[in-house]
Design a protein that fits this description.
Radius of gyration: 24 Å
Shape: globular
Number of helices: 12
Number of strands: 24
Strand order of the largest sheet: 3-2-1-5-6-4
Number of domains: 3
Structural class: alpha+beta
Largest sheet: 6 strands, mixed
Strand content: 25-35%
Distance between the termini: 62 Å
Helix content: 10-25%
Length: 486
């Protein structure tokens, strides 16, 4: 079918085309159900313009029609636009490539009763432990989502790539003393049943209840607006990194190609003028990659057959690169030539499945730890008066420049937590100011994994990726009451 679609696109005049087929299977516990979604799509290049067509009806009769339709749409785009060319470098051709997420236990081969029994056992343990500690626990069922996606990519250049990606999304709630938290296993992740089954779940439940025991007795504090030093756990730092540089360093956004969808970037409209400039304190170094095991954006080949390699995004506070694809890499060619590095794609073309348009999406982001052995508690001890940002719900503007984070706060006095702020509080942030005031970062051993979502296009596509971050201290940040008028 894929070859038939390619032949049809080539016969219709495409100078390049690729075909993607996906089969996505999901299992959801506890409300047990299973879904399967099929998709086939063709991307065709003609006279410097792209055309794309997709269908959920994977059938031999659909394939040639899809190939011709993609070229017809490319022709329509070319007729309505200015003359342009797509300048990209050749890539290694892989005629028979295969890759599978490294897993130990295939969750689709495990008996349903075994997984349901495990869920029931954890729920019973949580209730019993809460009652034994004198804190009543509500019944909160566990939710596990397992996904297997088979992906086939065939291109007119000669690559034929088959990949199988497994993901697991564990949602294990802990309700105790009127507080509800979700157990943090370092997921969602690319993994099998072993990711949940071998996790120290009972120990994590005990630790979560210990943390609740420490915070519940803290007195309620009124919010005092002003500028304060903020200590952020790794999860909050991940949200800040996602909401700022995670989207702002997408080169197509910086050039304005997303202006009518998700927005632009303050690191634009000329990326070549932004590269090499200081965007954060020297403490911040971020590597982008799609190779770390279990991370959500990890893949052997991206959606146009490029094998991704790690690349420095921000080095000691200096912007050193953008997220690129085969076409986008050429847009930054003068910078790469100046640095003496090859002009090559970073393998950032991705999609949810064959039914969604392949677009540049954010890879995994790895924030480097600091040189000193600092963790969250050590950072708290170094603050005379400020706040711990326990959670954040961040909303950024269309340039990723300014934002408001709705936060929950714990007040710090002389290096100790002294009370929880009651009511709503807001972190008013300006991206350059936020990261220039990065004062300290956690050291080796304080890293933690979080999940980000790259949102692109209209209608919006959502592609997940992973962030590995460390706790951090930001000085003199604006805390406001979002309910009051200025």
């Amino acid at each position: 079918m894929a070859q038939t679609a390619l032949d049809a696109a080539h016969a219709a005049g495409a100078t390049y085309a690729d075909v993607r087929l996906t089969v996505t299977t999901s299992r959801v516990f506890q409300n047990l159900y299973e879904t399967e979604t099929l998709g086939m799509s063709v991307r065709a290049l003609r006279d410097g313009y792209w055309g794309w067509a997709a269908t959920p009806y994977v059938a031999a009769t659909e394939a040639p029609r899809l190939g011709r339709l993609a070229v017809r749409l490319a022709n329509a785009n070319a007729a309505s636009g200015l003359p342009r060319t797509v300048d990209w470098r050749p890539i290694p051709i892989v005629p028979n490539g295969t890759w599978t997420t490294p897993i130990a236990i295939d969750p689709f081969e495990v008996a349903l009763e075994e997984i349901l029994d495990w869920c029931a056992g954890v729920e019973t343990f949580t209730l019993a432990l809460a009652n034994s500690r004198g804190g009543r626990s509500a019944q909160n069922p566990i939710r596990l989502i397992f996904t297997k996606q088979e992906r086939l990519l065939l291109s007119t250049e000669g690559s034929c790539l088959h990949q199988q990606v497994y993901t697991v999304v564990p949602k294990i709630p802990v309700a105790y003393k009127g507080v509800r938290r979700e157990l943090h296993l370092g997921g969602p992740a690319q993994a099998g049943w072993e990711f949940v089954f071998h996790a120290p779940v009972r120990e994590l439940i005990r630790r979560t209840m210990d943390e609740i025991d420490q915070t519940v007795p803290l007195p309620a504090k009124a919010l005092d607006v002003g500028r304060y030093d903020l200590v952020c756990p790794a999860s909050v730092v991940a949200a800040l990194l996602e909401g700022t540089f995670g989207a702002a360093t997408q080169v197509d956004r910086a050039l304005g190609y997303e202006a009518n969808a998700e927005g632009t970037s303050y690191l634009g409209p000329d990326p070549l003028r932004c590269l090499g400039t200081t965007v954060a304190a020297p403490l911040l170094t971020v590597t982008a990659e799609r190779t770390t095991p279990r991370a959500l954006a990890t893949i052997k080949w991206d959606d146009e057959g490029v094998e991704p390699a790690p690349f420095p995004l921000i080095t000691h506070g200096v912007l050193t690169d953008y997220q690129t694809t085969r076409e986008a890499a050429a847009w930054l060619a003068p910078w790469y030539q100046k640095q003496g590095t090859p002009v090559r794609s970073h393998g950032c073309l991705a999609s949810e499945d064959a039914l969604t348009l392949p677009m540049p999406h954010t890879p995994n982001l790895i924030m480097h730890p600091g040189a000193h052995a600092l963790d969250l508690e050590t950072l708290v001890q170094g603050v005379d008066h400020g706040y711990v940002v326990d959670t954040i719900d961040l909303d950024m503007d269309f340039q990723q420049l300014n934002g408001l984070g709705r936060v929950t706060l714990t007040e710090i006095r002389r290096g100790r937590r002294v009370g929880q702020v009651r009511g709503e509080a807001g972190l008013l942030l300006h991206t350059p100011e936020l990261w220039q005031h990065l004062q300290a970062v956690g050291g080796e051993g304080s890293q933690d994994w979080s999940v980000g979502t790259s949102v692109k296009g209209e209608p919006a596509e959502q592609v997940p990726y992973s962030l590995q971050t460390v706790p951090a201290l930001f000085t003199q940040q604006a805390i406001i009451d979002p309910r009051s008028k200025g």
